[in-house]
Structures are given as structure tokens and as C-alpha cells.
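Hello,

Following up on my earlier ticket. Below are the two sequence lines again, exactly as submitted.
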Amino acid sequence: MLRSLILSVLLVTPVMADPVKDYILPATERFAAATEDLAKVAAGSCDAAVLQPAWNTAMDAFLDVQFLNFGPVEAEGRAVTLAFWPDPKGIGQRQMQGLLAAADPAVLTAEGMAQQSAAVRGLVGLERMVFADPPLTGTYPCALIAATAADLDVTARAIRDEWPAFAQLLATAGEAGNTTFLSRAEATQTLFTPLMSGLEFVRDRRIGRPLGTFDAPAPQKAEMRAAGRGLQNITRSLQAMRAYTVALAPQAEKTLAAFDSALLAADAVEDGSFANINDPQAWLKLDILRQRVEALQAVALDEVGGVLGAGVGFNAADGD
Amino acid sequence: MATRRAFLAGMAAAALPRLTWADAGSPAYVAAAKTGDAFALYGLTAEGAAVFTVPLPARGHAAAAHPTRPEVVAFARRPGTFALVMNAARGTVAHRLAPPDGMQFNGHGTFSADGAVLYTSEQRAAGSEGRLGLWAADDSYRRIGDLPTGGIGPHDILRDGDTLWVANGGIDTDPDDRTKLNIATMAPSLVRLGADGAVLDDIRLPADLHQLSIRHLALAPGGLAFAMQWEGDAAETPPLLGLWADGKVILGDAGPEAGRMRNYTGSIACAGEQVVLTSPPGGIAACFGLDGALRQIVARTDVSGVARRGSGFILTDGTGAVTALHDGALDPLATGGPQWDNHLIAIG
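Thanks for your patience. The regenerated structure is below:
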């Protein structure tokens, strides 16, 4: 009797969460697979009707890794290159027009694109071309799209290929010779921080920029207006961070419920491009979503942070 | 007679031994830190070992070390109501300084070259007008006057020969809760004051960078390096490093890595031809050349304190680690310490 009780206690001891194996590595694989597909499509077609679905798939896969803004995703300026947004000064549009006007053939390879400004590269650079109105046609613009997709694929593959070594650094935190993570706590902190900064990005940028204030909404500041993905980017990144939370701290039930509550509020938003945000009803619905994300931030900091014994850094939280 | 007088003088000196930094364990640095809910000021060796600890009543910020006596002035975090003069050899508080009525300490201060005068960074609670407080360090830290800093919201101050640099951050803050009141119109400046308070230099950034608050300072070969934080649109990533030499300002260029600083810098230090800026929210230390070009970035969780260590640097962070940084490589010196606060101050 006693023995079986002990055994059952042992059996219900929670399995150690492994967000790297359960979430991060598969997500980087999916992203690289999607960009490979997009690069292949772009090499064979310049038809917007063919390019746009492949780009959308790659964009969804990117949102699954975008918030993992540390290690391989952040190295070499990749986070900025992959999605140069916000771009309040319209640098990307200006530079893309410059590239098209110059029509330099040296740019038309993955290596050539890698030398270009972050503002014309990556998924945002591609969105500008793939959703151009009127559509881009002609040999040079089509080759530029293919080169941009090839360059994006190189970056996504580098992230996928570098993650296993970075995972090893996380796994050996605190061991001799590991100067990246001097303790287990640092590795845990590194895995926790992107959840908080990712939610902040959703609230302040993806929602906050078009939302503006009740008296001055700013539909022109919405993300990816050409592709009409403002809301989809919010929904997909919330879903991604929810899945990450399941892998990171499966017992964080309040946080998962807060994610669901925010996703419900996202469902209630009708215009996915936020073009109608000047309408008071539409504004209020987006503001409710903002409030839900804000509540989610507080719950996640408290609950997931508590489970992991992590928080916002002492200096990072409140500097001077 | 001469011999007898010399003997007596020697006796007097022996009877009243002057404490030196050696009596405080010869620390190379001081830093404020937090352990649990308790705050303290620590003296650290170049190897990251703590040699003295003095409790603080509340969260500290920066400190100023007397050039010869083992005295450290620990400044409260902004808006500061106290500065404590600590005897580092005895581990006791020797003097408690309070700002004059209607004034606040701003977390930083420095000594004159001879150690006779302590300068404190202060602002008027209402309006944030910057003042430099003067205290007689050889006379029980008596308040002896104040001078205008030529700007509002001064933060770091730094002695350069017989002159003083002041980073006028430009931000008008609410006296009670630090709410920023003038972001749209802020106008930071870098001012050099003569010993008499005369403005010798008044350096301003281009108009489109007026929301770059100049916060922290380090002497650099032939000039000055300064660290800034961006109060403008978070979508932009302007340079956070400035270098002043030969009457010209060079701005740092971190290229595509610029966003990694999260538009915020914690501290700055110079060693030889290198400048290091820390960003606690970015969890990085970024090393630049004197030409403003980014050399490399190293990742350290919650890193904020930085000071020169030989030809390289020493970093402190909120995880309790002290780390050496040399040629872009990190070398852990100590871990498991208290949560090191914003700044690491070199002694001497």
C-alpha cells in the first residue's frame, strides 16, 4: 500500500519542461522549411497570386520564432533584417525604389541582397514587392524578389543550424567553460525574458501604433498594411507565445487562460488591417485587446516568472 | 632642537594615523547592490572580491570615491534625498548629506582633484533646473554653495583636470514619481564648467536628436565619451554613444545591431582606444572604437556596471556576477554575489 503510494507520487512528479526541444527547435525548423519553399516559389514565378500564399506561410512561421529574440535569432542583426518594422520614416520604400531604379545586377543573388540595408531585406522587404499595387513585373523586379527570398532563406537556415549549439550552451549553464550562462538561473532568465518582451512588442507596437489614442487613431501606422496582416500578426504571435508558455511552464494555468482571453478579444476585431480604426467601435475593440494583452503581461510576469524563479532584471526593470 | 621638533612631529603623526584606502582592503571599485530587500555599498578588488560592505538605508545609484582617504559617498537613487559619506575602512557612516530645501540629488557626484570639494548633481524639484552642489570634504562636508549646470535634469558629472563635465539629461521630471514631463521639447546638453562655474563648452546634438537624453560620461583619449538614452519614437534606433574630441561630436554607429541596446544605456567606460556601453534591457555590453564604429557585442544578463580594468573592462550585473571583458572575450571573476546596481565606480 505504502509502496504503491510512493510510486504513484513519483509518477505524478512533473516532467521537466524542455522548451528548447518542445518548442524552439521545431519552430526554427518550420521557419527554415517555409522560407525554403518561398525561395523556390519565387525562383520559379513572379505571379503575385503564387507568391503571396508562400509569403504568408513564411510570415506565419516567422512569427513563431520572432519573439525568441536572443541567441541565433538576434545574432548579426537578424531580428532587424528579418522584419524591418516599424519604419516611421519610410526608409524601406525609398530604398526599394532606389534599388529598382539602379537595377544593379550584382544585387540579384542571396549574397548580393545580404549586402543591402536591412530596410529592403527580409519579410518586410518582400511584402513591399509581393503585395505591390500595381504588381511588380519585368525581369529586374522579379529577379529582385527571388534574390530577396533566397537571402531570407539563408538567414532562416542559419538560425535553424545555429540553434542546436546554442541549446547546448543553455543545457550546460553554470558549468566550467560556459561563459555565456554562468548559472542555471541565467539560462532560465534568458528563456523567460522573450515572453515578456514579445508581449510588450505586441501591445506597444502591433496594437499600440495603429491604436494611437481615442482622439487620434493611426491606421497608417498599422503593421503590414499591404498584406493586410495587422491582426493576423497579433493573433499568430499570441498563439506562438502561448505554445511557448505551454513548453516553458505548463502549470501556468492563469497565464494560459489570459492568453485565451486575449485571443478571444482578437477574434472580436473585425477589420484585420485596422484600416477602419477611426471608427469608435473598431477602436474600442482594439483597445479591449490591448487591455487583455496588458493583463496577460501582468499575469505572465507573476505566474510564469514565479514558476521559473525569474523576473525582469534588476537593472533592466528600472534603470536611470 | 630641529631633531627634537622633528621627533615631536613624528610622534604627533603616529598618534593620529590617517586612514588610507589600504585600510579599506585596497578596493579598486565601489558599487551599490541589493540582496533580498537589503541595500548596501560594496568595495571590490580588480578580481571581483568584496573587501568591504556598508549597509544603505535605501536603493543606491552611483558613488564617488575620495582620491586619498577611504571615504565613499553613496548617492541615493533619483530623486535622491540622501548622500552618505562612508568610512570604508571602518564600515561606518561618517556624514549624512541632504540636499537643500526644494532640491534633489540626481544620483551622481565627484570629488575635486585634491579631494577638498565634493560636487553633487542636483536639480530643483520643481522644474528640474540643474545645480551643482559644493561641499567642503575637509570640513565635515559642510555645504559651501552651488552653481548652475546650464541645463535641466543633470545626471552624471565627471572631473576633467580642473574642469567639470555635466550631462544635462534635459528631462523635466515630476518631483515625486519621476514622470517625464517635457519629452516633446527636451533639450539635453553636455556642459563643461570651469572651477568658477563659467560655462567653457555647451555641446548640443542636432535638432532631430533632441530626444536623446545625455546620461553618463567617461573620459576618452583627447576628449569625452557619453552614453545616451532615447526618449523618442521607439521605432527608431538612434546612436546611443557620443564622442567629443577637438570640438567635434562623433556619434556611434552600431549598424544593424543598433536595436539590441533597446534604446537604453546603463553605464559607459573607456580603456585605451575602446569604449564600452552597457544595456541592461538588451543584456549586452557593446564595444566601440574611438571612431564610433561598433567592434563587438557580448551578452551578459542584466549587465549594467562597467569600469576600466587594465587595458580591458570589468562588468557587473543584476544576476550577481562580476566579469572581465578583454578583446571581446568574457572571463567570469565572481558569481553568486548581490544584485549589482547600475554603476561600478573605479577608485582613483
